[in-house]
Design goal:
219 residues, alpha+beta, Endonuclease, Chain A, 7 helices, 8 strands
Length: 219
């Protein structure tokens, strides 16, 4: 049932994203119109980054003033880059930090295996176990750098790997994955709080968190 709800939410949000991107490919007045409609309708869409990596400067700024932070990632590479380093070093100290990464130790077929299969279809450098190895490396890194910080909690999930969410009490950065490209090449939506897209991002995170388990870093 949870997987079904996640799929419905992702489909609805992805449809909204496709509509917005269609307008973005038009003229500047259309993007201005999207911004105005966002305020009038309460969707909270502030801007769209062509690639999610383009948002990292703004993410770092929002992390620096956040009271709490939630991260749901499909691989977690961003968590090991400069944008998050002040958080792991203790330079930043929000009230709570919750991090979700895919489960790598589930025997048999898993959602991470399915995502890995999709990546192999268009990226010839991807072997079946590469994604799992990358997630394990990122989880091991986080377990090491956060071991003395009790306000940071790491958990893992075995659910559809469909999006990345980085959320604070002020805003959310939301990226929807597709089966034909890496997440880094996907557009990233910036959603202000409060607003519909911001609520969808938090709902997505909270449902996965409720069906997750404490992270078990690989040996």
């Amino acid at each position: 049932m949870t997987a079904f709800l996640l799929g419905v939410l992702s489909s609805l949000a992805a449809s909204a994203l496709m509509f917005v991107l269609g307008l973005l490919h038009g003229s500047r007045p259309l993007w201005w119109l999207v911004a105005v409609c966002s305020r009038l309708t309460g969707t909270g869409l502030g801007r769209v980054y062509r690639h999610q990596s383009s948002a990292e400067g703004d993410i770092a700024r929002d992390l620096g003033r956040a009271r709490w932070i939630k991260v749901l990632a499909g691989r977690g590479n961003v968590l090991t880059r400069e944008v998050f380093s002040p958080l792991w070093s203790g330079e930043l100290s929000p009230g709570s930090v919750q991090v979700l990464l895919p489960e790598t130790l589930t025997p048999g077929d898993s959602w991470l295996d399915r995502r890995s299969h999709d990546l192999c279809l268009f990226d010839p450098g991807f072997t079946p176990d590469l994604l799992k190895t990358q997630v394990e490396a990122n989880m091991n890194y986080l377990a090491q750098v956060t071991r003395a910080q009790p306000h940071i909690e790491l958990r893992s999930f075995n659910l559809p790997n469909t999006c990345r969410v980085i959320a604070t009490d002020r805003a959310a950065y939301l990226t929807f994955y597709n089966s034909h490209s890496h997440g880094r090449n996907s557009p990233c939506l910036y959603a202000r709080a409060p607003g519909l897209l911001y609520s969808i991002a938090l709902q997505q995170f909270d449902m996965v968190w409720a069906n997750s388990s404490p992270a078990r870093p690989a040996a």
